Amino acid sequence: MSNLIENKILGFPIIQNQQDFVIAKFNIKQIFSFTKYTTRILNSFDDEGNPIYNEEIQREIEPSRVKKIADFLIEDPEATFPTNLVLHIPKEVIIAQKEHNNFVEIFLDKKVFEEVKKEKGDIYITIIDGQHRIKGIEVALERIEKEIETLSKTIRSSTSSSVDLTKKLNDRVQRLKDLENIELVVSFFIDKTIEYQAMIFSTINRTQKRVSQSLVYDLFGLTTNDSPHKTAIQVIISLNGHPNSPFFKRVKFYGGDYSLENSPPLSQATMAKSIVNLISENLRESERDRYRSRKELLKRSSGSNKFLPFRKYYAKDKDNIISDILFYWFNTVRNTFKDDNGNSLWDIGNSGKPTNIIQTTVGYESLLKILVEVLNEINTDIFSTLVFEPYLNKCKNLRLNDTIRYPFNNKGKKILYLDISLAIWEYNSNDVNDNRMKELKEITAP
Predict the structure, then answer these.
(1) C-alpha–C-alpha distance, residues 331 and 255, integer Å
(2) DSSP labels for 243-298?
(3) Which residues of the chain have pLDDT under 50?
(4) What's the angle, vertex CA 274, arms to CA 268 and CA 277, rounded to 5?
(5) Contacts for 191 with CB less than 8 Å, ≥ 6 apart
(6) Which residues lie closer than 8 Å to 354 by C-beta, 6 or more apart?
(7) Which of 102, 132, 266, 399 has a Cα-to-Cα distance from 80 of 20 to 30 A?
(8) Residue 357 and residue 86: Cα distance in Å, rounded?
(9) Which secondary structure element, helix H or strand E, spans residue 141, and what is its range?
């Protein structure tokens, strides 16, 4: 059975200590159809879905190790690679995911396969661990292909037949086929931050040969100092691990059916990005903020007017307040929005699948946008549900489990935001800048 059918990867879901990944097997030819070694570090994506690379870091490999691997593959007919390659798939290239009969099907955007064919194309499925093996395999295939080309030319130009050359050519052709069909075990981590990928690399290599933390961060283009991205991860770990947290065991890439129109529960990378966006000016600026001290973020450029509520807490080394804000805001959300039986609409059932919009990624994003506006008019650094209840109590009558009014897409996201906004802050028809009612009518028009 093939684990790669057209643009679909078929694998087994694996859970270890509440962390999930997918295992599959592919032959070498298949692997090179969706990934290859690259020195560039893919950190994130911009709002248009284009890759953002760390321009300061080149993930280099050791040529001597690559040569040894290539020699091993070419010369040893019993060459094997029993250990897993570890790859990463960003959610931006996942069209859909389905789980059935203990298998997970991951449907990939066709650009994954198109770009890898280009000399300088974007490599979306990146290598966390195994870059030397991948490059060694690539070099081995190139060397054998060149040998085949040279032998073919020699035989064609020769005036007399050479049994030895023909036999050598046939041997090389067979060796190329054998190598292309070698099957490798692959572990896929899905939608993880670059910091999480570095942690995986460090964990894998620490059990075999001690790898310095500085080397790990160099390889992944990170700094060993504080950064907004590290703060975001620590906040998520804290919220995901606290039994009373609204995000307790909720922040992960779940199995089950998944499509762009029907998002699963919140992913770690999505939540991390949302937190960083409230610390840094934009995604590209957040890459520069990785290398700045916390205090430097107290300064803002003259043309900057974006409200960044988490920036001052990060700059003043008060990450706990960021956690508190998210903890108490979303706990207030959980306590406010309930169905007719008094069950919280925030809580997800045993199926793990969202049944209303606030359980989805787009719902989280709308609620976070409202939070930012609430924080813009609150003057306190001490947070509790009492701080947020006066705002959300005005929204109690909204029927957020109405999936017709609130579909799990960008339309539903906008309607949810506008409905909550208008419930909290009354529409002012005399304010020419208040376009909320107009926007809502346009979105909901039949």
Answers:
(1) 25
(2) TTSTTTTT-S---S-EETTB--SPPHHHHHHHHHTTTSSSHHHHHHHTTS-GGGGG
(3) 210, 253-256, 260-264
(4) 140
(5) 89, 90, 91, 94, 253, 267, 268, 269, 270
(6) 262, 263, 264, 265, 348, 360, 363, 408
(7) 102
(8) 33
(9) helix 131-157
Q: Please, are residues 332 and 385 in contact by the beta-carbon 8 Å criterion?
A: yes
Q: What is the pLDDT of residue 367?
A: 97
Distance between CA atoms of residues 220 and 229, nearest Å:
13
- Per the DSSP assignment, residues forming a β-bridge with 8 are 5, 107
List Cβ neighbours of 84 (8 Å cut-off, separation of 6 or more). 23, 130, 184, 185, 186, 187
| pLDDT confidence of residue 284 | 73
- How high is the pLDDT of residue 256? 46
Structure tokens at 123: 């490599």
* C-alpha–C-alpha distance, residues 416 and 307, integer Å: 21
Q: How far apart are CA 335 and CA 343, in angstroms?
A: 9
Strands 183-190 vs 4-5: parallel, antiparallel or unpaired: unpaired
Element (H, E) at 103: strand 103-108
DSSP state of 344: B
Task: For the chain, give the number of residues.
Answer: 446
What pLDDT is attached to residue 212? 53
Closest CA to 314 of 410, 207, 231: 231
Q: How far apart are CA 209 and CA 425, in angstroms?
A: 59
Count Cβ atoms below 10 Å from residue 9 Cβ, excluding itself. Answer: 24
Contact predicate 31/266, CB 8 Å: no
User: From CA 12, how far away is CA 140, in angstroms rounded?
Assistant: 30
Query: Which pLDDT belongs to residue 345?
Result: 95
User: 87: part of which helix (H) or strand (E)?
Assistant: strand 85-89
Angle CA(258)–CA(260)–CA(261) in degrees, nearest 5?
95
Residue 303, CA distances (Å) to 107, 280, 283, 306 in order: 42, 14, 17, 9
pLDDT of residue 415: 96
Structure tokens at 377: 């008019």
pLDDT confidence of residue 246: 93
pLDDT at residue 1, as a whole number: 53
pLDDT at 261: 47
Give pLDDT, residue 265.
64
pTM: 0.59
| Rounded-to-integer distance, Cα 403 and Cα 414, Å | 14
